[in-house]
Amino acid sequence: MMTSRERVLAAVNHSEPDRVAVDMGSTPSSGISAIAYSNLVNYINANDKDVKIYDVVQQLAEPSNEIIEKFGVDVIDIGRTFNTNPEKWYDTVLANGDSAKYPSWFKPKKQSDGSYHVYSDDGDLIAKMPVGATFFDQTYFPYESGYPAEYSSLKKEMGKVLWQCMPHSPWDHSNEPDFWERLRANAIEARQNTDKALMVVCGCNLFEWGTFLRRIDNFLMDIMFPEEVMPLLDELIQIHMKTLENVCKYLGDVVDILRFGDDLGMNSGPFMAPETYRQVFKPYHSKLCEYVHKHSGMKTFLHSCGSIYKLLPDLIEAGYDIINPVQTTCADMEPERLKKEFGNDIVFWGGGANTKEILNKGTVEEVKTDVKKRLEIFAPGGGFVFNTIHNIMPDVPPQNVVAMFEAIDEFYR
After folding, report:
1. Do the Cβ atoms of 53 and 32 come closer than 8 Å?
2. How confident is the model over 135-189, as pLDDT tens digits?
3. Are the CB atoms for 327 and 307 separated by under 8 Å?
4. SS3 (DSSP) at 37
5. How many whole angstroms separate alpha carbon 373 and alpha carbon 49?
6. Neighbours of 11 (CB within 10 A)
């Protein structure tokens, strides 16, 4: 049998491993909600029932080592090597009433109606979670009224956007003076003490940062006039490249996969015409991928939701090795089509279980049938890492999560 790392590396190098490589929780787009996780650990009577909400925006749980081993997960996020002491967490309550833990730095303000607000250091309301909700919504858009004359305060404004102000690990430690040295030491220790493949989540979003700063409706109109958005993108790429230089310097010879993010698709198709993508965003994406490939041994992983079939040739040409979450429930994203047309050129990390209609609503047998059918399509020849279509959401019954992993085992018997 292959080790987990060998299994993942075989898959991402388009060689079929001994069995499909599996992910759950190595990125904030391949994980499990805190409520679903709480239901799961109670259902299986796990020894470790702590529900640590490491991604506070999306309310995602950090899977325990017990869960990782039980379900044969082959890849882990090096962010889990931080916040390992109990005092780094404090008790909170989930929307369904279950107990959980927040990172010690995260202190949302509970309102009289039971909702939660998050404020920036200078008092702006930047995020809300209504009563009964299971994630925080962005409420502050720095450039909602228009672009500034110059971008000297861009970093400050980015720091007030919830995705950066409420970061998941390891980036909640990025302001500490020894962060990069500690990140490297932790990654080396993880590589020595586990056979799992290692993932680092790096972000470097471009289209999405435009939507975070301007608000999505404004930015979608803006990109039709590239001269308006290019100055912002030029500033963003400079910031991203500095981060990327450090990531490659400190982790490039230790970590296996670097995860970028930029949601480019809707249910019906891309947010923009391929021609617009090529003109506005592809040159920047190409620069990011080129730098990683030139200065490290890491594979480049792009998280992009939605129907991106029409953009895949350009994303491949830009240098992305892996695509996630493979949202096969969207237009033009049929598994057979994707595998046939692009299976030799890009790795599909996801698409392994229908989280929209079957994993959450189906019977155990329907879940197993869905998973096995997808394995039959995606697994042959490698180029596939099993993961659900995006995160396992709060409404997914625990028995269906168990059934999903059982289906993988049954497929290889």
Report:
1. no
2. 999 999 999 999 999 999 999 999 999 999 999 999 999 999 999 999 999 999 9
3. yes
4. helix
5. 32
6. 29
Is the whole-model pTM more than 0.85? yes
Q: Locate 105 and state its tokens.
A: 């730095």
Of 330, 328, 307, which Cα lies nearest the Cα of 384? 328
For 292-323, write each residue's pLDDT tens digit.
999 999 999 999 999 999 999 999 999 999 99
Task: Confirm if 20 and 408 have CB atoms less than 8 A apart.
Answer: yes
Sheet of strand 384-386, all strands in order from the earlier edge strand to the far edge: 21-22, 384-386, 347-349, 322-324, 299-303, 257-261, 197-203, 75-77
Q: Which residues contact residue 156 at a Cβ distance below 8 angstroms, ignoring those fewer than 6 apart?
A: none
* pLDDT digits 0-9 by tens, 81-139: 999 999 999 999 999 999 999 999 999 999 999 999 999 999 999 999 999 999 999 99
Cβ–Cβ < 8 Å for 334, 322: no
Contact (Cβ atoms closer than 8 angstroms) between residue 131 and residue 113:
yes
